[in-house]
Amino acid sequence: MAPPPERPPTDYGSAGVDADAIEAGLAGLVRHIRTTWPAGADGLGAIKGRPGYFASVVDFDGLGIAVCTDGIGTKALIAQMTGRYDTVGIDCVAMNVNDLVCVGARPVTFVDYIAIERAEPAMLEDLGKGLAEGARLAGVSISGGEIAEMRDVIMGAVPDRGFDLAGTAVGRVALDAVNVGAGVRPGNSIIGIASSGIHSNGLTLARRVLFERAGLKVSDRLDDLGETVGEALLRPTHIYVREALALLASAMPVHALVHITGDGFLNLTRIEARVGMRLDALPAPPPVFAAIQRLGGIADAEMYRVFNMGIGFCVIVPSEHEARAITILGAHGKACQRIGTVVEDTQERVWIEQAALVGRAGEGFARAGAAAP
Q1: Are the CB atoms for 237 and 196 separated by under 8 Å?
Q2: Confidence label for 5 from pLDDT (cuts 50, 70 and 90)
Q3: Is the dihedral of CA 340, 345, 350, 356 positive or negative?
Q4: Angle at the Cα of 332 (from 288 to 338), degrees rounded to 5?
Q5: pLDDT tier at 1 (50, 70, 90 boundaries)?
Q6: Which parts of 75-162 are beta strand (E)?
Q7: What average pLDDT does the segment 112-117 reach?
Q8: Angle, vertex CA 71, rays to CA 312 and CA 232, nearest 5
Q9: Nearest to residue 195, comparing CAs of 311, 294, 352, 289?
Q10: Residue 132 CB: number of other CB atoms within 10 A?
């Protein structure tokens, strides 16, 4: 949608997130982290599968221990603006366990870290409510955590209510069952499971558009949302553990599981197989994305680079198992459908046919000059 002529379109960079700088910084950080990995492929502490995937798997005396860490990002600011703190704990658990299950692991336990501007018992209790509900939905325990009051470091949208919430999930997986998408082949079906909305990615851009550019408040209602802006942005991230584990427990081959978070559908390129993805049957995105795009004058390419656009998790299975996989996944209450097909492409591109876009990891999306293979 073309922006008003007097105002340039909004994008992640203008909202304050420099994705290129993050990638460059990450490369340098990872160079040092790699020096800690044990030499050789076997032995206590060896990293299995594909290091740096959605979660890492460590060989612990023959048992695969999967671990990952994540937080809720600037969704913490939405909680402060609305004065509601009892749901973001669900997001914190979700962002971790949804990554953990991608390697084929069963999540087992979770620890949290809460950094706060000022200790406020009622707020902390509400954060605990959300964490407990997220753990219930994921089938994990919360075995510990840490609270740090740092008034000189943590500041938020509301005085004395600044906080950050992050966590680490731990699970287990047989070392010979670690799944990093190595078995994906052209012709496989890509099944998408619906998101609950914006989840916990892209909120810096959403906040810039809705609150700064459009001048809205969290209590404002938009006709196309059918709810307040705050309600739409605060809706908790779906947890996909139960349906993913049900699929893994079936007899069918599950070639990949992919959490659609930051970078949107480019997360599909994180798998080990060198293939392309043709998405030709995506459902209409939830109204929150249309509202953000309309009010921010955001290009389609930027929307699909930043947001999940209505699909929060994908599984890739052989086409002959597509119908049964959809039945198993759909039994857990979330909408799901075939959204595309794996194609031959050594450049590992993702085509979004309904938006005429093609993208690659590290490059984002652009207008497609040709159809997918």
Answers
A1: yes
A2: very low
A3: negative
A4: 65
A5: very low
A6: 106-116, 141-149
A7: 97
A8: 50
A9: 311
A10: 15
Strands 311-317 and 189-194: antiparallel
b/e 320-344 (16+ beta carbons within 10 angstroms → b): ebbeebbebbeebebebbbbbbbbe
pTM, two decimals, is 0.91
Q: State residue 90 phi and psi, 5-degree precision.
A: -60, -45
Q: How far apart are CA 205 and CA 185, in angstroms?
A: 35
Question: Which residue's entry shows tokens 């076997």?
Answer: 42
Bridge partner list, 63: 60
pLDDT one-digit tens code per residue, 65-83: 999 999 999 999 999 999 9
Q: Which residues pair with 47 in a beta bridge?
A: 58
Phi, psi of 124 (to 5 degrees): -65, -40
Of 225, 178, 179, nearest to 206 (Cα)? Answer: 225
Tokens representing 197 are: 């909305």
